[in-house]
Amino acid sequence: MPTETSAEKIVPEREHALELLRAMLLIRRFEEKAAEMYQAGKIRGFLHLYVGEEAVAVGAMQSLREDDAIVATYREHGHALVRGIPARSLMSEMFGKANGCSRGRGGSMHIFDVSRRFYGGYAIVGGGLPIANGLALADKMQGTNRVTACFFGEGAVAEGEFHESLNLAALWQLPVLFLCENNLYAMGTALSISQAEPDIAAKARAHRIPAETVDGMDILNVEAAVKRACDAVRRDEGPQFVECQTYRFRGHSMADPELYRSKDEVEEWRKRDPIALLREQLMEWEMLSDAGAEEIESSVTAEVEEAVAEAEAGPWESVEDLTTDVTGR
Amino acid sequence: MKSDPRVFLIGEDVGRYGGAFAVSHGLLEEFGPERIRDAPLSESAFVGAGIGAAMNGMRPIVEIMTVNFSLLAMDQILNNAATLRYMSGGQISVPLVVRMATGGGRQLAAQHSHSLEVWYAHIPGIRVLAPATAADARGMLLAALEEPDPVFIFEHATLYPNEGEIEEGSKIVDIAHAEVRRRGDDVTIVTYGGSLPKALNAADELAAEGIQVEVIDLRTLRPLDTLTVLESLRKTHRAVIVDEGWRTCSLAAEVSAIIMEEGFDELDAPVARVCSAEVPMPYAKHMEEAALPQPATIVEAARRLM
Question: Which of A196, B106, B162, B259 shows the smallest number of beta carbons within 10 Å?
């Protein structure tokens, strides 16, 4: 677990800090509602929740511009929400409705919104990295200074595609920001029993990619580290790598009985809940009052409730359209 | 590449080496290393890079040295290239062209010689082409670059040395239809790619015996042009399918099933298949020849139907 005392205390602007808090809380409440909807049978298939890891997506995404691209994994609801994909569009997708962002074709694991350059949730571990390289290659060849942010878990570092992609990105100096969300478990397999070298940043450096490891529960540190890396990518210094050490508070998916880790371990990490940490910090700095916190809470709750209502009311795609959009012809 | 700056080539040894089969010989000098990209031996990474670039405004051509190597990129091909449009509800287009060598006949044994194009033809969301002539090799590539979806072009390695006239100014070829390469009334041979010359040789031999063979070059393996096959069958009422893939679950099996479903009443004899023997490709020349479809085995199969 990362130590509580970070190297530097960053004091943010109040408005910005409140936005970060709201964004994390929206993800938290959205995910809790999604779990409820899963229990109610409204969401089916696999459902992977981001609870506990919110600081990573919210902190990292602050450095990105509208024209940057994002590649994420099957645990991508948080990234989609920070990117501005409306909660109603996301929830409708998870309900399988035609008004969902992927028209109900993708579900929880395959969120796409090309208008926001959100290039999707990839459910084959490591499978998004080569795609991120390609998006970045096109940007580079077209002479833009766009960045492609590529999120993946620490499980991906065991895949050949991880090493192939890091090498290619470094070799071709592609504008990719590799963001590893190290939550310590690839489903139920701990990093310590799956990697001979558990230092993930060292693997990136072995491919000559500058890498930094950051406490992923401290959003201000995540934001600062990713900004440094993102700025370097935009200055055309080649790919950069940030490992965010985090933890998921819930199971891998809704089907996970969590036999592989202890309740004590989960409780220890919960003490470092990124949302509680930021809230306490903001109160200490007198940037947030109880009433202010309550206001954020109720506005987020309303947004999630509205998302559920819209998903409930949304239409199903007609079965007649089963074979549309298999090809573009 | 001259007319469209979005087109570029990625692959192993496509630049400095000039292409494993010399397909890209001289292109590095003409277009430079930005557009003729030598890739490390990372099939998954460079096919994925092609997919991502295609999603983002470019028109990449990816060369994979042989079909056996393409298996290392199967994740990117099936899970990404073929599914992204559908999975994203129609938001994503992947206009990617992937070319690779396929087939046996060069004594390269069991890791360089198989004809696995049917594995690709199984996948919805992509188009699969197999040129058998010089004009098609060129024209299909141009046509593929106009497609909104991934196109896989399987070039039979034994065809590379063949020479053929290409008409001045002839450009894009039709990739929606099969082509009748020889007209005949007695039996239809359905084939494609490297087996086409063998089928035409067999047809010559059969003609000497008085059996007139119609030879259909499928050209596009997905989606299949079944109408051309069925139309021929209405005339000949007999069909031999020649396919260098293994017989079990082969393209020949698919064509045979379509004939059964849609042309059953036309048949005067059971459909015959000439495929590769169900063995990993052997090295020794006589053994490899025995494993592959040959004019003699095609002739024999056709005779049996008469």
Answer: A196
